[in-house]
């Protein structure tokens, strides 16, 4: 990947498209005769330099020096677990409360030990000194009774259960995954509380980082916050490094058509449908477009009160584009606020198209109703992103083993 469009360049640099247009008009960046930009000429931007100089192939070769056992909490449909498995982890136990997600895990991996039910009912001391623990704990508000929030003060939240599992099982390294909004939630107090609790239970937190999935062989603009903790007695034996970016940015075409990610076009599968009037309106939206591309009278009809509200609202009546990464998937592709319309056909993305954008393999079967399947997929960590960060954790565990 050497030449990219304005829109794709904006995605890579995490800036609005209007910023790219402004830079172009001011001569800060110069397109070629086709209107695209040569990344080889833009290495002053750190994101582009990282892609061009990536050591992805070396990272792909990282393998465990021994069998590493893991625990996963809030496992969902298995996106994180499947990525960690590909990195070399052996799941000792996976916990999830949703019955459909549990059945999804059991259907695809009958050998996995899936504990269905409330995490608060599990005693993790039986897994003491496990190699690794992970989980995407839901972000819940804390009640701040004093100046410094302690472990017991977090009781009643799912982060408390995550921290309890860490304290009881004493993993060498843990990974917590969350939405990027946790960084600023409650003006940063929630993350500060989490830091103090991690310190209290005997772990050193690597500076949290938001990873953009498009840099890790995922054709989707998804961003997730990752927290890495290392047990205090092992901190001096390891230096954790975040994963290298992939050598190019994949697009929706890579997800839905035969190519680099998949050997065939996306298989047919069930999917939600639009009501007739909504389908007619969305048929007027071009690939990559949204409500702003509609005639004014149709805009007013579709947007209703939102037409007069401030803000871009670009998720509404949104049609995807084969030449760009997908927007972040939600739990439903047909919600009015977060449309995910197919780039060519006037319909929501199907279940299997959803799964491909999250980089699940085509043979990964999702159980439950169609609504449940969309929810499971939309809530998952993209498999390829999980695999990338899993390899870096394997490298850190290998360093610990080498020092012993």
Structural features, described:
α1 (6-13) crosses α2 (17-25) and α5 packs across α14. This protein has helices at 6-13, 17-25, 46-52, 56-60, 79-87, 99-108, 158-169, 189-200, 252-256, 276-282, 296-303, 351-357, 370-378, 383-403; strands at residues 3-4, 37-38, 68-73, 89-96, 114-116, 132-135, 173-179, 203-205, 209-212, 223-231. The chain is of the alpha/beta class. The chain has 14 helices and 10 strands. The mean pLDDT is 93.
Number of helices: 14
Q: Report the uncertain regions.
A: none
Please tell me how large the radius of gyration is.
22 Å
Query: Please, what is the oligomeric state?
Result: single chain
Helix content: 25-40%
Provide a quick synopsis of the model.
The chain is an alpha/beta fold and 404 residues long. The chain is built from 14 helices and ten strands.
């Amino acid at each position: 990947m050497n030449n990219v469009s304005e829109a794709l360049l904006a995605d890579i640099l995490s800036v609005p498209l209007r910023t790219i247009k402004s830079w172009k008009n001011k001569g800060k960046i110069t397109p070629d005769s086709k209107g695209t930009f040569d990344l080889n000429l833009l290495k002053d931007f750190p994101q582009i330099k990282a892609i061009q100089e990536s050591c992805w192939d070396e990272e792909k070769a990282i393998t465990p020096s021994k069998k590493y056992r893991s625990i996963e909490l809030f496992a969902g449909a298995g996106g994180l677990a499947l990525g960690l498995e590909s990195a070399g982890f052996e799941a000792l136990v996976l916990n999830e409360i949703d019955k459909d997600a549990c059945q999804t895990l059991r259907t695809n991996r009958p050998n996995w030990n899936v504990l269905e039910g409330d995490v608060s009912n599990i005693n993790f001391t039986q897994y003491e000194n496990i190699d690794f623990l992970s989980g995407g704990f839901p972000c819940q508000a804390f009640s701040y009774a004093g100046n410094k929030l302690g472990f017991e003060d977090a009781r009643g939240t799912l982060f408390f259960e995550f921290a309890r599992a860490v304290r009881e099982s004493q993993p060498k390294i843990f990974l917590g995954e969350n939405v990027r909004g946790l960084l600023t939630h409650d003006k940063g107090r929630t993350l500060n509380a989490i830091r103090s609790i991690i310190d209290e239970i005997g772990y050193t937190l690597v500076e949290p980082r938001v990873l953009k999935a498009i840099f890790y062989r995922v054709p989707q603009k998804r961003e997730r916050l990752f927290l890495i903790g290392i047990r205090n007695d092992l901190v001096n034996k390891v230096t954790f490094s975040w994963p290298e970016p992939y050598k190019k940015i994949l697009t929706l075409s890579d997800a839905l058509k035969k190519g680099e990610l998949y050997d065939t076009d996306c298989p047919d599968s069930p999917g939600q449908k639009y009501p007739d009037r909504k389908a007619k309106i969305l048929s007027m939206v071009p690939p990559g477009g949204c409500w702003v591309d509609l005639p004014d009278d149709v805009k007013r009809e579709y947007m209703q009160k939102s037409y007069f509200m401030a803000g871009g609202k670009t998720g509404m009546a949104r049609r995807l584009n084969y030449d760009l990464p997908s927007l972040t998937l939600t739990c439903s592709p047909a919600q009015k606020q977060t449309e995910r319309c197919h780039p060519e056909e006037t319909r929501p993305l199907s279940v299997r198209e959803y799964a491909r954008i999250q980089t699940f393999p085509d043979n990964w079967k999702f159980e439950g109703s169609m609504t449940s399947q969309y929810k499971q997929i939309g809530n998952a960590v993209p498999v390829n992103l999980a695999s990338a960060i899993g390899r870096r954790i394997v490298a850190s565990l290998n360093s610990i083993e080498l020092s012993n």
